[in-house]
Amino acid sequence: MSVSERDEVAADVENELTLLSRYHAHAQRAGFQLDRSAYLLLGRLELEHPLSLKQLAEAFRLDISTINRQIGALLKRGLVDRVPDPDGGMARKVEATALGLEQLHADRALGRKGVERIIAEWSDHDRDELRRLLTKFNGEIEKYDGNSWPRAGRTS
Question: For the whole model, what pTM was predicted?
Answer without folding.
Answer: 0.84
